[in-house]
Amino acid sequence: MADPKLTAPRGTRDLLPEDAPWWERAETVARELAHRYGFSRVEIPLFERVELFARGLGESSDAVEKEMFRVSGARGSDEERAEWALRPEPTAGIVRAFIEHGMHVRPGPLRLTTIGPMFRYDRPQAGRYRQFTQWDVEVIGDPGPAVDAELIELGHRFYRDLGIAGVEARVNSIGDATCRPAYREALVTYFAAHTERLTDDSRRRLHLNPLRVLDDRHLDPELAAGAPRSVDHLCDACRAHFETVLRLLDALGCAHVVDHRLVRGLDYYTRTSFEFYVAGREGQQDALGGGGRYDGLVELLGGPPTPGIGFGIGLDRTILAMQAQAVPLPAPPPLVAVVGATDDGVARLRVAGALRDVGIAVRPDGSARKLGKQIESAVKAGARWAVIVGEGELERVALKDLASGEQRDDLDIPAVVAAVRLT
Ligand code: HAM
């Protein structure tokens, strides 16, 4: 047992070799789809000024108010003494980079994507971690509504390509600066009449940001069901936008339901908001991913008025869903062991090199153990073939099929390559 002081921090997980095929599959599909949808990769720092998150995500969001993972570099210059936090999400940082690099002058709309770890100091539980990984996409400079539907369709395609069945998008519109104030007022009036049924958190946030009350995990369901709905308060422009998004989703055949309670946990959202769930499990399980439009964020952070929309898909939860549904993973390419008991290891490394030159995955055994032992280890390591390097010419080897036990002697390297490629 490891020293308890030296175990992984609570709410974090080590990725072990047996987890790797799941992560590689999810990341490969995400990167490949991002490419196919015209996104370019960006990378931003893992930590930024606290102020960026406070302004961008909102002081009253859980991510800022309760879950901020602060880091300090408390020394020297003002820059070093600034308050920093590990990023709880990447949208604020990407928008900061967009402004900082004057990217608004580039031919837009810009399509940016990143995959990486995010940090929220939340209470850990199944599917909720203090360090987790998101696949994020952002489209900056496109007012929609076509792109809104396109991103929801992209999310659907991602889950479908991974083989996860029954994913549904829950969508809502939470209005904009024109119509949101009246909606907020309606929520305050409604909940203020029922403060005794609210959690302490919600009572405190009611006047600060009543949308947070609707988003409270512990909100009384009956009270939630009777709450004013944002769709009933949309201005004409927001209503037309939302209706078009829904019509496009129908036309694209994207499974979705309108969820009037969906307000999202971050303050930058405007208009279209959405989350992905495995249908029927939305009560018991957190979202697999979520996103929405943030038409005011670029300006809020000091840039020119620019619309934006994006999503973040939680890869940890996506992988849990893949495992729960036992989706098949593509077979890995066959592994070839190179063994030999008569050389000093050089011949084995040379043969390994020749096979790697043509793209074959190779695990040479450099030991001086008996051939039988080396082959036993190769089987345990998951090798499909063993190339046996003998005493004679380097170019002549034996090839053992570790599945059938069959062995062919005196082959040249091209014959080995041809046999391996047939598996
Ligand atoms: P979010 O809804 O806060 O949105 O997070 C997106 C996804 O990240 C969630 O649906 C979930 O799958 C995953 N996630 C969040 N917190 C945790 C956690 N503690 N443990 C495991 N997974 C988690 C955003 O972050 C926005 N930046 C999305 C976005 C991009 N909106 C516009 N552009």
CA-based shape: elongated
Number of strands: 16
Mind summarizing the main beta sheet?
8 strands, mixed
- CATH class group of the largest domain: Alpha Beta
Under the CATH scheme, the architecture of the largest domain is 2-Layer Sandwich
CATH topology of the largest domain: BirA Bifunctional Protein, domain 2
Strand content: 15-25%
Count of domains:
2
In which order are the strands of the major sheet placed? 1-5-6-11-10-9-7-8
Q: Would you identify the CATH H-level superfamily of the largest domain? A: Bira Bifunctional Protein, Domain 2
What kind of oligomer do you see?
single chain
* Average of the residue pLDDT scores: 93
Helix content: 25-40%
Radius of gyration (Å): 27 Å
Report how far the terminal alpha carbons are from each other: 41 Å
If helices are DSSP runs of H or I spanning 4 or more residues, what is the number of helices?
A: 16
| Bound small molecules, deduplicated | histidyl-adenosine monophosphate
Detail the poorly predicted runs.
none
Structural class category: alpha+beta
